[in-house]
Specification:
By secondary structure, this protein is of the alpha+beta class. 22% of the residues lie in helices and 36% in strands. The protein has 2 helices and 6 strands; from the N terminus they run ββββααββ. A hairpin with a 2-residue loop joins strand 5 and strand 6. 20% of the residues are buried.
């Protein structure tokens, strides 16, 4: 079954806080979610935060795919590859930092 790959228009607003992360600026959006530049208020560092769309989070297969992608990302290291700090859920939002 093909999934709708068109970007969605849903996204939290800059200034929103999820767990210890404050959203600063939307960087991009795709079929799985939206990516923000965020500030880690505990570690006091900038991070990229990928938040999955609510409709994706409701689909168990797509939710598992997101978590699997995050786990695989934690094992990959190298120049130009961002480090994954955590996969978490806050305020009913699933995200990757």
């Amino acid at each position: 079954m093909l999934r709708d790959a068109r970007p969605r228009t849903w996204a939290p607003e800059p200034g929103t806080k999820l767990a210890q992360y404050e959203l600063v600026k939307k960087l991009g959006e795709g079929s799985m979610g939206v990516v923000f530049l965020a500030r880690d208020t505990v570690g006091e560092r900038p991070v990229a935060l990928k938040i999955i769309h609510p409709d994706v989070a409701q689909d168990p297969d797509r939710r598992r795919r997101f978590v699997r992608e995050a786990r695989i990302s934690t094992a990959i290291q190298g120049p130009g590859i961002g480090r994954v700090f955590e996969v978490a859920e806050a305020d009913e939002q699933i995200f990757l930092a």
